[in-house]
Amino acid sequence: MLLFTKRAFFNGTYYLFVGALIFFLSGCASSWSAKVSSYQKWPDNVVGERYHLEAEPQQVGNLEYESISDTVRAAIGATGLVEGNEEARFTVKIKYGSELKEDWVQRYSDPYFDEFGPYGAFGPWGGYFGHFGGFGGGIYYTPRVVTVPVQYHEYYLTVLITDAQQGGAEVYRSTAASSSGGSSLLDVMSKLAQAVFDGFPGNNGEIRTVSLPRNR
């Protein structure tokens, strides 16, 4: 999908269609998607067993962590577990964050925006002296499509569940990642938590795409 930068050439103002980047990264305006990888050796007959959320030392007392752990509590119902105390059979740990990444999108070139680039005002296709622009550009300017780098954040959430009755062995590990934004970090993490437990426990080693309605 194209990310367009449109300039009103006569008054020197322009508008960046930032929303188009969200379309590019998510692929659909009406739904939200995440890439989910899961590994599991989920035991049988554990419905009603208890779990507790265990914070890492750096997470203890962290209000952001506490809010995000609430999103995991809301999504964990698919496991059949219920929250208990530290003597619970299952221990749940979470890790989350974001990573700055770069991708390439297309937009129309702008002789002002790309002033000295190959498609800019003074380039071979530029509005001032370009083959199709005419002197000074004006209404004769024909924009070209250019590919430009765009930075964005990829958000991730990992949930790890261990079983005390198996010596603390891992029985579920899942990571959900998405470049789709939300109204807040908490909103994104809430959706990632839902994705982590979507179709639980799933197949061991499965990598899949989970799509959710944006209002879910």
Describe the structure.
The protein is α+β, with helices and mostly antiparallel strands. It contains three helices and nine strands. It has a domain at 27-100 and 152-213: Double Stranded RNA Binding Domain. The strands form two sheets. A seven-stranded mixed sheet has the order 5-4-6-7-8-3-9. A two-stranded antiparallel sheet has the order 1-2. Strand 7 and strand 8 form a beta hairpin. The protein starts with a strand and ends with a strand.
Oligomer: single chain
Radius of gyration, rounded? 24 Å
User: Structural class, please?
Assistant: alpha+beta
CATH topology of the domain at 27-100 and 152-213: Double Stranded RNA Binding Domain
Spans of at least 5 consecutive residues whose pLDDT stays below 50 are 1-28, 124-134
- What's the architecture of the domain at 27-100 and 152-213, going by CATH? 2-Layer Sandwich
**How is the main sheet built?**
7 strands, mixed
Gross geometry = elongated
C-alpha end-to-end distance: 25 Å
Number of extended strands: 9
Q: From N to C, what is the helix and strand string?
A: EEHEEHEEEEHE
Q: Can you identify the CATH class of the domain at 27-100 and 152-213?
A: Alpha Beta
Mean pLDDT: 78
Helix content class: 10-25%
Strand order of the largest sheet: 5-4-6-7-8-3-9
H/I helix tally: 3
Beta-strand proportion: 35-45%
